[in-house]
């Protein structure tokens, strides 16, 4: 972030907590990787995929992170929290180790903090040290860039797995597979013969290419768009996150498509300011300004 003078984030993690984290992963019987928006910002999709392939640790992603890990893989279990997948919630609740990668422990995910992952140790990875322990205390903290940290974890795992026994995670992933299969809703239609919204969105996802960008506002629209499409690539899902700004889908998809431009190319040519009515989800005013700002 060159435009913030004096801000010098630590990108390379310290090796000591890296080794401690890997030792915890090696001994864990029910670990889960909880991935947040920091993984998207740092471009950690490739090292994240390599880490999961190597370790076999199940993955759950926040609302803002859909697509950073491909849904076609065998180990993603969806989005936890409000409106999320039941398998993702069970993965966090029954885990013995939660690895939070670039994710804040938002109350939409944790609920009551004292009841979140009651039997789990927590490893919190973030480039901003003020985020670690802000909402939920962590047993291990690693300050560093998500992409660099997950790469360091992979290298340390390769170095230590020949010296220490590695836990078999097949029963853990098998349990989550069963939960996912039993909790997935049937989307063949409704009892009155009409098509359901979930069925339509899922079919559209099957007919569109992997680089399709999905845009949604808050409320049930966000829940539907976050859960039903199959996301294979990062930066293909745009939404307001926790603020749930009603009406934000309108400028993102219609004003020269500046939202997808920012997501793909890191800049925009058009910005929009608007005010919406939260109850009716209608746009009250829209002002468009042409500019050439860069992120």
From TrEMBL:
GO terms, molecular function: acetolactate synthase activity; flavin adenine dinucleotide binding; magnesium ion binding; thiamine pyrophosphate binding
Coiled-coil intervals, chain numbering: none
Taxonomy, superkingdom: Bacteria
InterPro entries per record: DHS-like_NAD/FAD-binding_dom (IPR029035), THDP-binding (IPR029061), Thiamin_PyroP_enz_cen_dom (IPR012000), TPP_enz (IPR045229)
Cited Gene3D superfamilies: 3.40.50.970, TPP-binding domain (3.40.50.1220)
Enzyme Commission number(s) of this protein: 2.2.1.6
Pfam families: TPP_enzyme_M (PF00205)
Principal EC category: transferase
PANTHER family, A to Z: ACETOLACTATE SYNTHASE CATALYTIC SUBUNIT, MITOCHONDRIAL (PTHR18968:SF13), THIAMINE PYROPHOSPHATE ENZYMES (PTHR18968)
Protein's name according to its UniProt entry: acetolactate synthase
Organism: Rhodococcus erythropolis (Arthrobacter picolinophilus)
């Amino acid at each position: 972030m060159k435009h913030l003078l004096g801000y010098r984030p630590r990108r390379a993690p310290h090796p000591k907590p890296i080794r401690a984290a890997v030792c915890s992963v090696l001994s864990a019987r029910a670990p889960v990787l909880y991935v947040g928006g920091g993984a998207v910002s740092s471009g950690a999709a490739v090292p994240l995929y390599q880490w999961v392939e190597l370790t076999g640790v199940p993955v759950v992603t926040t609302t803002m992170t859909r697509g950073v890990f491909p849904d076609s893989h065998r180990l993603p279990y969806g989005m936890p929290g409000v409106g999320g997948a039941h398998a993702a919630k069970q993965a966090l609740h029954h885990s013995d180790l939660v690895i939070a990668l670039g994710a804040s422990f938002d109350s939409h995910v944790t609920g009551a903090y004292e009841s979140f992952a009651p039997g789990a140790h927590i490893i919190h990875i973030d480039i901003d040290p003020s985020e670690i322990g802000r909402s939920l205390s962590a047993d291990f903290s690693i300050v560093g860039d998500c992409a660099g940290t997950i790469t360091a974890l992979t290298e340390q795992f390769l170095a230590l797995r020949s010296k220490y026994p590695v836990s078999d995670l097949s029963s853990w992933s098998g349990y989550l597979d069963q939960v996912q299969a039993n909790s997935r809703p049937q989307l063949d239609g409704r009892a009155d013969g009409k098509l359901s919204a979930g069925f339509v969105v899922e079919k559209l996802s099957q007919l569109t290419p992997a680089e399709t960008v999905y845009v949604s506002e808050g409320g049930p629209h966000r829940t539907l768009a976050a859960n039903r499409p199959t996301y294979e690539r990062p930066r293909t899902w745009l939404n307001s996150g926790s603020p749930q700004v009603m009406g934000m889908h309108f400028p993102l998809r219609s004003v020269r498509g500046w939202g997808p431009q920012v997501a793909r190319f890191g800049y925009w040519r058009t910005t929009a300011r608007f005010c919406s009515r939260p109850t009716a989800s209608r746009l009250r005013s829209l002002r468009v300004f042409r500019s050439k700002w860069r992120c």
